[in-house]
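Hi team, as promised in this morning's meeting, here are the two structures we talked about. I've kept the exact order from the run log so nobody has to guess. The first one is mostly here for context; it's the second one we should focus on when we meet again. Sequence first, then the predicted structure tokens.
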Amino acid sequence: MSRIDFYHLQKQTLDEVLPKLLMKSYSSGKKAVVKIGTEERLEQINSYLWTFQDESFLPHGSKKDGFAEQQPIWLTTQDDNPNAAEFLFLTEGATATPDKTTEYERIFNIFDGNAESKARELWKEYKNAGFEVFYWQQDDNGKWQQKA
């Protein structure tokens, strides 16, 4: 059964957190799908991942780029997994039903205060479906701390 981690953004933005988490997953050799709430935001994140650091970039693509099966990180607004990813990142209020999450080893639900109520609903839904769920908050220094 998939592990589901809820990351509550309080000290940093998605643009600051997402690349770091994707770098960790990419360096582990795992493929990722990033499901984003809107096409407009998908395009912004797509551009940002190429330029967020001067000395490196994250190889990724979207429907616009094609070659999904070759992309280590796939950006989408749909419930697709064309690169056979092990990790699913849910951002900008995007969701996935428990039946869609079973194809992933790990799900990262990254949300801010605007999507907090939706995250709570998902937490209950996943918990009731028998998934392992974990909640993470940032401390005053921006480090992630698991909360009970």
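And here is the second protein, the one for discussion:
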Amino acid sequence: MNRWLPVVGGVMLNMALGTFYAMSVFMLPLEKEFGWTRAQTSWVTTIGLALLTAWFVVAGYIQDRRGPKLVAALGGSLFSLGFFLASYTQSLAGFYLTAGVIAGTGSGFGYVVPTAVGAKWFPDKRGLVVGMMVGGYGAGSGVFGPIASSLIDRVGWRTTFQILAVVFFAMTLVATWLLRNPPVGYRPAGWDPSLAKRAAGADVQAREMLHTPTFYVLWIAYALGTTAGTMVISQLVPFARAAGHSAAAAAFAITVGAIGSASGRVLSGWISDHLGRLNTIRILLVVSALAMPALFLLRENVATFYLFLGLVYYCYGTQLSVYASTSADFYGTKNVGFNYGLLLLAWGAAAVFGPSLGGAVYVATGEYRWAFFIGAAMSVAALVTLTFARQPQTRPATAVAGIRSGLGARG
């Protein structure tokens, strides 16, 4: 099989699932119809992203043992169902259940597949290809966000949910057909695995990974560094309108953010293949710490608003790409679905704190100033935390087996 076909499937799947990032286009119509507050509508993003990370762990465990197709099909079906049922929303609880719980669960099941499959097919270009796979998730909101905004103006938010549900179901079916793992023992033509092993850790199980201090360093830095992005994502359209921009400019901001996020995932993934995973993340955390306050302070000019918005999203997308490749490098690809799922729980923590931070600050102060300043401070804290990260030393397979058998004998 041409190994680029699973990449096409992974990008398609993640583009559909990534439209969850554009959920903010539905906030104003829902608030207008039902009288909900910004803090209330923001919770759907928090619920969805938190469940995405929680189910990612379960889905990763299943995929490592049963393969990608079952998990991808389940994820795409649940995500599409969540959007379809959201069109019948009559209460805040109903909106949380459909657009948050069901769609978020589907996103969690689907999102694990492209990352794991890409890491296995492309050990020679892992950063680039994983970046392309997760870049599809970032690009989804840029493609379907403006479409959703236009449809809402023409046919209303209920019909828009239904149209998107049908489109996403078709996309994820095709993607599921294309996604598959490489054969056992697969090696790309011309690739020397001995060179890669010098810079990578051995395949380890989760219990071994959890005994390495670096895992917790990565987890904390990941949570701190992505909080800024989740906060902006959840509040983007209302923030743009509060800054004085038109509805069209606010809708286009979703596209700008998606371009920034997708670019960060792909370009920084490629850069990390050459500059190193942790070095790439550290550089972008510095950029994030500067771009967050600049986005708020220069928000009223549309050009500077788009510029710094794109930078914030770029830094955010970089982390989602490079941390995934880092997990595969440090702990191997055999159990990458479950292992990276445990690391991705850090993003789930950011998904809870970021949107609630933005909504709470706006309700308390009437503006987003302190939310952006706190986000910048958390990027700095993530940078400091990463100074304690150390790549695990490679252990020969025979040594690993000997250690495990020794532990078993003691038990």
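Starting points for discussion:
The domain at 5-181+202-393 is CATH 1.20.1250.20 (Growth Hormone; Chain: A;).
Confidence is low (pLDDT under 50) at residues 396-411.
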